[in-house]
């Protein structure tokens, strides 16, 4: 999870710098922006977040996605759901199905979703795999059509990034051009910070069980006019019978991934896709992610932290990201 570094010294300029924070989506949000008319939009922003949850929160029984997951018929979707669904299908196609929002039943079974953990065995996983695959659902005239009942959706791996984009769009409609929006570590930085510089962001060193951001930083980046998202297995996992089970599930196998990639940070034009690709890389592993970045998405930037074959801590990053690095080149 990135950590924000916002300098306290503020320059004299038109308008006022506003800083707001709160809770949403089971995590925190922090927003800093320069308001030309000194307006504080926290109340309006929290209303936008509430509307967003009513569309895509799997923890809200009355949300659109929850109703679809219960196999209710003729559920009308909204623009939030449709935008997120179409982007999910795009990344699903580009990653060969390694990013798949229909993996929800298996994520739930392993205890990382929105239902109780199940007693997992190969028979259960094989049966649940029959409900996985975005080729089994489609969006037709604003409604989800399933090939069979029981298919469930979980957009948490893309929706949080999308919520950052939604709030960013809200600020821009208010004429705000200098801001940083962060929700649960996913962020969008535009313009400059209060010190008239690019925004500084820290990337945590992926230490198992570390829940407090900023205690040990692996890298510091300077970014502007880009979005950033990080995914990793070092916070959400459990151990049982000497085995570590990560929250990242391979949709092709139905099992938690087992590889040396510890965290993936992605820089992109929008936070929705940065979020989705960061998750995708955690499924692909280190070698698969590097190959994907070089051959299929050369314009996407990423910072990968991994263990090599000797168990040594290593980092790898794209050429495009190097110019953003202040610390963390090795």
Question: Could you describe the 3D structure shown?
Answer:
By secondary structure, this protein is α+β, with helices and mostly antiparallel strands. The chain has helices spanning about 40-55, 65-70, 80-95, 105-110, 120-130, 155-175, 270-295, 320, and strands at about 1-5, 15-25, 25-35, 135-140, 145, 180-185, 185-190, 200-205, 215-225, 225-230, 235-240, 245, 260-270, 300-305, 315, 325. It has a domain at about 50-155: ApbE-like superfamily (T-fold), CATH 1.10.3980.10. The strands form four sheets. An eight-stranded antiparallel sheet has the order 2-3-6-7-10-13-14-15. The longest helix has 25 residues, at about 270-295. The radius of gyration is 20 Å and the shape is globular. Mean pLDDT is about 90; it is low at about 5-10.
Summarize the structure.
This protein has 330 residues and is α+β, with helices and mostly antiparallel strands. The chain is built from eight helices and 16 strands.
Any chance you could write out the topology, listing elements then pairs?
Blueprint: E1 2-5, E2 16-24, E3 27-35, H1 42-56, H2 64-69, H3 79-94, H4 104-109, H5 122-128, E4 137-140, E5 143-146, H6 156-173, E6 179-183, E7 186-190, E8 199-204, E9 217-223, E10 226-232, E11 237-240, E12 243-246, E13 261-268, H7 271-295, E14 301-307, E15 313-317, H8 319-322, E16 325-327
Antiparallel strand pairs: 1-8, 2-3, 3-6, 4-5, 6-7, 7-10, 8-9, 9-16, 10-13, 11-12, 13-14, 14-15
Helix pairs in contact: 1-6, 3-7, 6-7
């Amino acid at each position: 999870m990135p950590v924000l570094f916002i300098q306290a010294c503020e320059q004299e300029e038109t308008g006022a710098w506003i800083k707001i924070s709160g809770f949403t989506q089971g995590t925190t949000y922090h927003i800093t922006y320069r308001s030309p008319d000194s307006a504080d939009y926290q109340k309006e922003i929290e209303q936008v977040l509430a509307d967003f949850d009513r569309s895509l929160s799997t923890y809200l029984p009355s949300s659109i996605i929850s109703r679809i997951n219960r196999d209710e018929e003729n559920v009308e979707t909204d623009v939030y759901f449709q935008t997120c669904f179409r982007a999910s299908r795009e990344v699903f196609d580009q990653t060969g199905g390694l990013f798949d929002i229909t993996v929800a039943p298996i994520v739930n079974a392993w205890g990382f979703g929105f239902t109780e953990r199940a007693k997992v065995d190969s028979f259960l996983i094989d049966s649940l795999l029959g409900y996985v695959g975005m080729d089994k659902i489609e969006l037709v005239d604003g409604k989800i059509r399933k090939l069979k009942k029981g298919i469930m959706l979980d957009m948490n791996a893309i929706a949080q990034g999308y919520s950052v984009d939604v709030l960013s769009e809200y600020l821009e409609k208010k004429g705000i051009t200098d801001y940083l929006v962060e929700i649960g570590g996913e962020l969008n930085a535009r313009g400059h910070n209060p010190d008239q510089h690019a925004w500084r962001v820290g990337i945590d060193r992926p230490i198992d069980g570390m829940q407090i951001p900023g205690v040990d930083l692996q890298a510091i980046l300077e970014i502007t006019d880009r979005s950033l998202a990080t995914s990793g297995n070092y916070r959400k996992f459990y151990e049982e019978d000497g085995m570590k089970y990560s929250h990242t599930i391979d949709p092709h196998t139905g099992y938690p991934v087992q590889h040396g990639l510890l965290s993936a940070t992605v820089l992109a034009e929008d936070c929705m896709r940065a979020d989705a690709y960061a998750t995708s890389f955690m499924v692909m592993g280190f070698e698969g992610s590097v190959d994907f970045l070089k051959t299929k998405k050369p314009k996407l930037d990423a910072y990968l932290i991994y263990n090599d074959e000797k168990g040594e801590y290593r980092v790898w990053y794209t050429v495009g990201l190097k110019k953003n690095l202040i610390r963390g080149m090795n």
